[in-house]
Design a protein that fits this description.
This protein is an alpha+beta fold and about 425 residues long. It has two domains: about 5-100, Serine-tRNA synthetase, tRNA binding domain (Helix Hairpins), CATH 1.10.287.40; about 115-415, 2-Layer Sandwich (BirA Bifunctional Protein, domain 2), CATH 3.30.930.10. Helix content is about 40%, strand content about 20%. It has helices spanning about 5-10, 10-20, 25-65, 70-100, 140-145, 150-155, 165-185, 200-205, 230-235, 295-310, 355-360, 385-395, 410-415; strands spanning about 120-125, 150, 165, 190, 195-200, 225, 240-245, 250-260, 280-290, 315-320, 330-340, 345-355, 365, 375, 380-385. The protein has an eight-stranded mixed sheet. Helix 3 packs antiparallel against helix 4 (about 70-100). The longest helix is centred in the N-terminal third of the chain and has 38 residues, at about 25-65. The protein starts with a helix and ends with a helix. The model has no long low-confidence stretch (mean pLDDT about 95).
Length: about 425
Amino acid sequence: MLDLKFIRENIDKVRESCRAKFVDPPLDEFLRLDEERRKLVQELNVLQEQRNVANKDIGRKKQQGVSTGDLIKDMEMISQKISILETKVGDLDTKQAKIQIIIPNIHHESVPNGDSSNNAIIREFGQKMEFSFTPKDHIELGRTQSRLNMEAGSKLTGSGFAVFQGEWARLQRGLINFMLDFHTKKHGYTEIWPPALVNRQSMTGTGQLPKLEEDMYKLKDDDLFLIPTGEVPVTNLLRDELIEGDKLPLKYCAYTPCFRREAGSYGKDTKGLSRVHQFDKVELVKFVDPGNSLSELEDLVEEAEAILQSLELRYRVVLLASGDLSFAGAKCYDLEAWAPGSNRWFEVSSCSLFTDFQARRMNIRYKKSGMKRSEFVHTLNGSGVALARTVIALVETHQQSDGSIKYPKALEPYLT
């Protein structure tokens, strides 16, 4: 959430960023409410001061034995006016908050403007695979030895759900353990095992609500949501916390199942594992000093890249343009892995910097020794990495002519 004072004093910058993200919140209405509220608060402050003076006068005259009836009547009238104004200010606060919460984060100046066609490829890793045979896609490879059963997923739940069997069931488990071990032992993350259900406050804190509610799975009888990403429970762990500044950065990783309705996926490629409603992911979350957040983002990208390199995958790093950023994002890199059987790139990780946008919504602050007052941390997260699409790239890259998969050496201890 953007700071009220920042919006008021930088309205042109806010308008520009909203246009760059292709959103149009009612900023004029927001400013009108803000101006009306400030006028009422000034009037309220005058009345409260008058009440304080009247209280003192009443107390003094009582001590002197002087009648205070008229003063008490005047104070009661002032109190009634104060009560009316406080109600009006409260109503304005509610209206203003409803708009404030739908104003997106400001994108960083290093982010290119425009839609996804303006995304910038920063670097590529790995060479294009050469096959002596026509490579199969993951759907065909999945049918071999009954590794992937999309039909069973549809029978059990509905379209967009997968059943992994045998070798690929072990692959899912092995990849999860491999990535958790990698990030905890090599990158210094603390592992978290969070709930897969969160409340509305948690979803609002990280920015999924109210904007993306139609994409979420919500329980009928409770105001709870299946998590769309581990970012939600892990980032909310520190909601309303004051962190000792000298302990920053704090780095957490978590494996979670993730659930998304994909309500906006009509017309997109939804074959196989490319766009499923339930998938597994290892999430990386950082709480950092604002002065270091940009460099921490670059480190986060490299940590996610290290997984793809260990899996011997060809991938590229893409800097997202403003119109392709998330609601809460200030800057984001996508990692896209190449799948030779499908002949396309698949996004397997998004590494995002949110500046203090999420921390302000969740009231996550830090204070270093010597600081006069606490400040909001900067939050970051990234997939380290998401399995469904990583599995696509992995099996299609390492397939053999007979349909078997020669898994990379890094995975061998996790597949035996």
